[in-house]
Structure formats: C-alpha cells, structure tokens
Amino acid sequence: MTTPIPQAVIDMVPVYPEMVVLIGASAILLIDMFLKEGQRSLTYLLSLATLLVAGVLSYNDYMTGHTVYTFNGMFVSDPMANLLKVFTYLTAGLTLVYSRQYADDRGMLSGNLGGEFYVLALFTVLGQMVMISGSNFLSVYLGVELMSLSLYALVALRRDNHKATEAAMKYFVLGALASGFLLYGISMLYGATGTLDIRGVSAMVAGGTVNKTVLIFGVVFLVAGLAFKLGAVPFHMWVPDVYEGSPTAVTLLLGGAPKIATFAICIRLLVEGLMPLAFDWQQMLMILAVLSLAIGNITAIAQTNLKRMLAYSTIAQMGFVLLGLLAGVAGTTDRTGASAAYSAAMYYVITYVLTTIGSFGMLMLLSRAGFEAETLADLKGLSKRNGWFAVVMSALMFSLAGVPPLMGFAAKFAVLTAVLSTGQIWLTVLAVMFSLIAAFYYLRVVKVMWFDEPADEAPIVVKADMSVALSLNAIAIVLLGVLPGPLLAACLKAMTITLNT
C-alpha cells in the first residue's frame, strides 16, 4: 500500500505561471498551423497575452511575500524568483515587440517557419522560469537545457543564412560542453552528499562529514558551467561570434532574459547550496570578474561592429555582477550587508538587461529588408535623420557607460558601494578604472550619431508599437536612475526574504 503524498507537496498554485506559459506556447503552436500568411499578427498578440497573464500571476505571488516549496522541494516560489520572473516576462515581451518587423522582413515569420519564432521564444522563457525557481539540481538542469535547446534552434532559424548557421554550430558545440561541465559538477556533488536537493547539499556540506576534495572538484565544474552561461572570461569565446552571427532578434533573446535566469541559479547553487564552500568559489569568481572586466572592456574598444561591441560589453557587465556576488560572500558575517550586496547584483542584472534590449532594439529599428544596421557607420548622423531616436540611443549608451543620473550609474554605484563596504579597496579601484575605459567605446557611438554626417539617407520607418516601446524603455532608464529607490528596495526585500527563509 502506497503512502499518499501530502497536499502541500503537490501544491500546483506556485506553478500557475509556468503552466500558463506552457499551455500558451502549445496552444499558439497549434493555432499557428491554421493561420494564413497575413494572419501572423494573431500569433504575436497571443504570445504577448501569454506573457502578460504569467506576469500578473508572478507579480501577485511576489506581493504576498511568501516562500512556498512544491513537488517534493524541487520547485520554490519566493520573492526573488517572482520578481525576476516579472522582469523576464517584460524582457521577453519587449523583445517580441522590437523584433516583429525585423523578423517579418527576413522571412522568419512566414513560409515553413510560421510562428516558430514566437513559440520557441516562449519555451525559452519557460526554461528560464524553471531555472529561476529550481530548488533541486535536477530541476535547475532541466530548466537550463530547455532554455538552451530553444536558443540553439532560434539561432539556426534562418537556415539560408550561412552566418546564422555557423553561429548556431558554435553555440551548440560550446553550449553542450558547458552543459557537460555543469552536469559533471552536479554529479560530483551528488556523489559526495547523496542528495540533489540544494538545501540538503548545504546541510551536508555544513556538517563536515563529506569528502571535501570531491566537493571542490564539483564546485570547479559547476562554476565553469555557470561562467559559460554568463559569458564570463575565460568562457566567453562564444559570445561575440554568436551575437554577431545570429539574427539581431535572436541576439536580443540571447543577451537579455537568460542573464536574469543565470543570476538566479548562481544564487540558488552557490549562495543557498554551497555557502559553506564560499571561500573556494569566491576565489574563482574573483578571477572571473577581474578577467571579464579587463578583456571585455579592452577588446570592445577595437570593435567597429556594434553587435560584437555589445557582446564584449556584456562580458564586462557580467564582471560587475560577479563583483556583487563576491561582496555578498565577503559580507556573510553580516546578514544585512550580504543581502544588500546580493540585491545590488540583482539590480545590476535588471539594469543591464533593460538597457541592452533597448540597444539591440535600436539596431533592429534602423535595419530594414536587405539591410542590417550593425556597424558604427550605420549610426552616423542619426540625429539628423531622427532626433528623438538619437536621444533614445544616447540615453542607452550613457546608461551602459554609468553616466549619472541614468540607471546604469545607480547600478554601478550600488555594486561598488557593496564591494567597498567589504574592505576590498583595490577591487573597487580596478572596477572604476575599467569603467572609465568602457566610457570610450560607448561615447564613440554617441559621437558618430550627433557629429558625423549621415552615411545612409533612407527614411526610418517604424511601427507604432515599437516606437512607443523603445521610447518607454529609454524613459524608464532615466527615471529608474533618478529614482532608483523603489526598485532597489524591491530587490532588497526579495533577497532578504529569500536568503533568510
């Protein structure tokens, strides 16, 4: 006779957002089969509606402030997860809005491809949601693979484009290697502790009864896998090539929400699961952070292709995120300080994502059928062609450079304050120096927009939804820089409740 599972263990309420996205993606896939060539707008609207419903559910869960474990502890719904999911939906929704015309001009929404772009984007979001709420190594890995497999397919979506096909092969081969690292690290941790539950691993490691040598090897492989997903040096080699070779719409899906999900699993695996081994993985993160800041910023200076420049910018920005995680570890003796540092890193990730999707959105806005806007020369004289969009792009570049009073400055200031509070002055000075180097290549973009003569006289035609979304994106970057308090407070609340549960 089997023992009945307690109702609390199979509580379905926390997974309602995941169910909405799964059912929505499956339904859209079926509905799209019966749509004719000019009816793809329905697929687009249904995708946005799916994200909106999931966003309302996750926001409601965030407002309750409760932490709920379900599926025998494999899935957790807590404030950190729900807040990050809300921004994941927002990022994915903006991506769909920005990429609609771009994808349509390149045949990604017609013919045999149909609505696969939207369906795969939703499955990518679903994988990220599972990653964010995974409280078991197995569920985290399943989320990683669901996201990764969808992204592999998206990168290769334009099968007639040799650059996209090459990027897909590079991403697939190196992604499989990274997944192997992650899985091998998980297997070693499981072999040492006998459990896949993240809290269980933490308890076993803290007990001091497991083989530390095996644990350290497991942590090394785990950090390597996470560093690949973040695009941190020396696991960054895929980022510039894949960003450049992918259709810009897919590059946006690669460079946006996945960083939010990867940050979440860094917190889950390293902070919640392996904090007793913090001294060991802290040293690895420090090396990754310094190398990412150095190589990302210095290499970006030499780039004339904007997608490659933003790719190296991403590498450098992830160095700042790692600094926030380091500051949290250094402040573990002070719970308040640790929560503040982790919330600063969380705020930085959100800032990076909102700014980056706007930047790639501008590249898609300037592109048209038969023309890709992806070099510095393509932005020359933008202020003379359309003054408002030159202002929008300037705000985004200034934010990435960390110029006050924009959101990027508030994010950098929060992280540097957290690092400085731990007494690591040399690390703070180093980060500031590399930020000054980064300002050069961001301001170069502003210079060519405002002071160079236009290289392209073609009129800029943009749909109303994209124009409004890009404008609101830039305005949000300014407002959240002038008034960073509410979002910082939300991040602090989410991180405090999550880490103290």
Automatic annotation (TrEMBL):
It is a multi-pass membrane protein. The keyword Ribosomal protein does not apply. It catalyses: a quinone + NADH + 5 H(+)(in) = a quinol + NAD(+) + 4 H(+)(out). It is found in: Cell membrane; Endomembrane system; Membrane. The chain crosses the membrane at residues 15-35, 42-60, 80-99, 111-132, 138-157, 169-193, 213-238, 250-271, 283-302, 309-333, 345-366, 387-411, 423-443, 464-483. Belongs to the complex I subunit 2 family. This is NADH-quinone oxidoreductase subunit N. It comes from Duganella qianjiadongensis.
